[in-house]
């Protein structure tokens, strides 16, 4: 039985003091999530990772990205070793904003994924099609490439620490929701693809999230889909009130 997961992606939002206020207020939420058997986490900016972790040690605290090298001449970057050094063991990889604004490719995602997994991280690998690809009926081919290249070389053991976030690019931050049926169709396709990359039983255990303009008013419709195990949420995860409203809908 897969656990549900609600993960907030704060992107480049919240100053440290704001992140601390959120994390302190989220202590009641982590208790509520535990009682609901839901996993709860946020991905703050690098600067707030430790602040959030210290203020609520029960909240999953994920990085939004990382570099695949351990150290060296990579100005502006942060390595998995550096994240591990401050107690972080989760990271997003391949968010569409990383792909579109910072030139991430399936290959660079693969390097990051393998590095993170080798250090014991849980990886939330983000996949999804652009509006053009959606209109041209390319969604499944795009996802197949993202999964096949992004996950190449991942071992059977490491597969247990992979989570997939299906996020149609055209839906992120736009208010244009994918229909729950579309989300289910693609999440089911993702699970079938994962079975070919690992095994049916491993694929059955992988948590698959939907992301893209998820709000308290629509999250339940996604959670009702058999292959959707949770949500990756941007805008609606930025206040504790909205985050709590999302969690409440996950019962
Ligand atoms: C995201 O950042 O992953 C996301 C889905 O954003 P939003 O919920 O704001 O669309």
What would you note in describing this structure?
The protein has 251 residues and is α/β, with parallel strands linked by helices. The protein has a single domain, classed as Aldolase class I (TIM Barrel). It is 45% helix and 16% strand. It has helices at residues 16-25, 27-36, 49-55, 80-85, 96-102, 106-118, 131-135, 139-150, 156-159, 180-197, 200-205, 219-223, 240-248; strands at 4-9, 38-43, 60-63, 90-93, 122-127, 162-166, 208-211, 230-233. An eight-stranded parallel barrel has the order 1-2-3-4-5-6-7-8, surrounded by six helices. Helix 4 links the parallel strand 3 (60-63) and strand 4 (90-93).
- Give the structural class: alpha/beta
Q: Largest beta sheet: what is the strand line-up?
A: 1-2-3-4-5-6-7-8
Task: Give helix and strand order, one letter per element, not per position.
Answer: EHHEHEHEHHEHHHEHHEHEH
Ligand list: phosphoenolpyruvate
Query: For the terminal residues, how far apart are their CA atoms?
Result: 15 Å
Note the main sheet. 8 strands, parallel, barrel
**Poorly predicted tracts of residues:** none
Broad CATH class: Alpha Beta
Output the CATH topology: TIM Barrel
Total count of strands: 8
| Average residue pLDDT | 97
Provide a count of the helices.
13
Strand content: 15-25%
CATH homology superfamily? Aldolase class I
Task: Based on the coordinates given, report the CATH architecture.
Answer: Alpha-Beta Barrel
Query: How many separate domains?
Result: 1
Shape, principal axes of CA atoms: globular
